[in-house]
Amino acid sequence: MAAEKNENPLWTFDELMEAIPFAMAEGHASLPITGFSIDTRSLKPGEVFVALKDQRDGHDFVTAAFKAGAVAAIVEAGYERKDGDGALIRCDMSDYRAINAQLDRETASDTLVALQWIGDTARQRLQPSARVIAVTGSAGKTGTKEMLRACLARFGKVHASEKSFNNHWGVPLTLANMPRDADFAVLEIGMNHAGEIAALVPWVCPHAAIVTTVEAVHLEHFDNVEAIAHAKAEIFSGLVPGGAAIIKRDSPHFDLLRVRAQAEAARVISFGLDERADVRADALDVGEEGSMVTALANGRRIDYRLAMPGRHIIENSLAVIAALQAVDIDAAEAARALATLPPPPGRGARSVLKAAGGDILLIDESYNANPASMRAALATLAGVPREKFARRIAVLGDMLELGAAAGELHRNLIHAVIGASVDQLFVCGPHMKGLYDAAPAAIKGGYAETAEGLTDLVAGALRAGDAVMVKASNGTRLGPLTAALRTRFAV
Ligand SMILES: Nc1ncnc2c1ncn2[C@@H]1O[C@H](COP(=O)(O)OP(=O)(O)O)[C@@H](O)[C@H]1O
Ligand SMILES: [Mg+2]
Question: Going from the N-terminus, what domains does the chain have, and what CATH number goes with each?
Answer without folding.
Answer: 2-93 (3.40.1390.10), 126-340 (3.40.1190.10), 349-488 (3.90.190.20)
